[in-house]
C-alpha cells in the first residue's frame, strides 16, 4: 500500500493578461495576487495553477515568493488562511488579482 503525500504551497504570483482577455482590453499589463495549491510536486502544482488562470484570461509570469506551507516564514492572514482552507474543496485557489497598467516581470537572482 502506497500513500501519496501532497504538499501545500502558498505564494505571491505575478500575472499578465492573455491576448483578448478583459484585463488586456482595459489596458492592464500585469498584476499580482496570492495563490495556494496542493500537489504531488511543485511542477504539477504550477501546471494546474497555470491552467486555472488561463481559463480566466490570465497568464502566470512567475512568483515574488513561493514556499511550502510547512516551511512558510510568512504568517498567514485571514484571507490567505481561507485560501488554504479551501484547498480541501479544490486543489488550486487564488484571490482576485491586483491589476495595473505596467508590465510585471518575475524576479531572477
Topology record:
Layout (H helix, E strand, L loop, with lengths): L6 E11 L4 H4 L4 E10 L2 H14 L2 E11 L9 H8 L6 E3 L3 E3 L9
Antiparallel strand pairs: 1-2, 1-3, 2-4, 2-5
Kindly list the characteristics that best describe this protein.
109 residues, alpha+beta, globular, 5 strands, 5-stranded antiparallel beta sheet, single chain
Radius of gyration: 14 Å
| Quaternary status | single chain
Q: How many helix segments?
A: 3
Helix-and-strand structural type = alpha+beta
Largest sheet: 5 strands, antiparallel
What is the end-to-end distance? Answer: 42 Å
Percent helix range: 10-25%
Spans of at least 5 consecutive residues with low confidence: none
Outline type = globular
Percentage of β-strand residues: 25-35%
Number of strands: 5
- The helix/strand order is EHEHEHEE
Q: Give the overall pLDDT as a whole number.
A: 88
Your description of this structure?
Strands 1, 2, 3, 4 and 5 form a five-stranded antiparallel β-sheet that branches. The protein is globular, with a radius of gyration of 14 Å. The chain has 109 residues and is α+β, with helices and mostly antiparallel strands. The N and C termini lie far apart (42 Å). The protein contains three helices and five strands. Helix content is 24%, strand content 35%.
Provide a short characterization of the protein structure.
The protein has 109 residues and is of the alpha+beta class. 24% of the residues lie in helices and 35% in strands.
